[in-house]
Amino acid sequence: MQYIWQHRLWNASAMTTVDGRRINIIDPGTLNTDAGPDFFNAKIEIDGNVWAGNVEIHVRATDWKRHNHDKDKAYDSVILHVVEKDDAPVYRTNGELIPQMVLRYSHNFSERYNLLVNASNSLPCAAHLKDTPSLTLSEWVQTLAFERLQAKTERIRELYDSFHGSWEDVCFVTLSRNLGFGINNDAFERLARRSPLRLLHKHCDSLFQIEALLFGQAGMLDSNLHPHDAYYQHLCSEYSFLANKFTLTPMEGETWKSFRIRPQNFPHRRIAMLAHYVFDGFRLMESILNAPSEDALRQLFTIELTGYWATHYSFADTATSSHKALSNASIDIILINTVAPLYYAYASITGNYDYADKAVDLLESLKAEKNSIVDTFVKSGITCKDALTSQALIQAKREYCDTRKCIYCTIGHRLLSQAATKIP
Question: CA dist 303 to 151, 177, 210, 338, Å?
Answer without folding.
Answer: 29, 18, 17, 16
